[in-house]
Amino acid sequence: MITRSLSRIIFGGSLSLALLFVASLMGGASAVAAPACPSTLCVWEHHSFQGRRIDFGHVLQERSMKNRVIGSHATMNDRISSFVSNHGGNLCFYEHEDFRGLEFRIGPRESWGSMPRWINDKISSFRAC
Ligand SMILES: [Ca+2]
Questions:
Q1: Global pTM?
Q2: CA atoms of 102 and 110, how far apart (whole Å)
Q3: For the segment 26-79, what is each residue's pLDDT rounded down to a tens digit?
Q4: Which of 17, 49, 56, 92 could lock onto 41 through a cystine, CB 3.0 to 4.6 A?
Q5: Cα 97 to averaged position of ligand 1 atoms, centre (Å)
Q6: Are 68 and 75 in contact (CB under 8 A)?
Q7: Is the pLDDT confidence value at 114 over 50?
């Protein structure tokens, strides 16, 4: 009887902790809800999916983001700060053109409202990987 009560308390306690842990994870991930992306990959120039956006469809590769114009003269090179991927596989973003430099690899259908600081505003190429 005592053992049963004790196990119930322990189980109840660990369940509460587990729920608290999951809730804290969800809270972090849903700080800014990712908007719908009509293409396979959408990238934004600012955090939280703000600013100008460029969509990528079937060809999930870009050797140089300098080719992607977002203003009269500006390009998306060294400007990406958030993204939504609907791609079913991994994507690799690179610090330099032609898939060189630091690599930031993401899994299937990941969305990041804020790029890691070490690669934020540095991406110059990407491809499926
Ligand atoms: Ca760069």
A1: 0.74
A2: 19
A3: 433 446 789 999 999 999 999 999 999 999 998 899 999 999 988 888 899 999
A4: 56
A5: 7
A6: yes
A7: yes
Q: How far is the CA of 45 from the centre of ligand 1 (A)?
A: 13
Report the CATH number that the domain containing residue 118 is assigned in CATH: 2.60.20.10
Q: What total number of domains does the chain contain?
A: 2
Burial call 11-26: b when 16+ CB within 10 Å, e when fewer: eeeeeeeeeeeeeeee
CA of 16 to the centre of ligand 1 (A): 45
**75 CA to centre of ligand 1 in angstroms:** 12
The Cβ-side half-sphere exposure at 77, using a 13 Å CA radius, reads: 14
Domain of 50 in residue numbering reads as: 41-128
Residue 34: half-sphere exposure toward Cβ, Cα within 13 Å: 20
Same domain, 102 and 121: yes
Residues 120 and 58 in one domain: yes
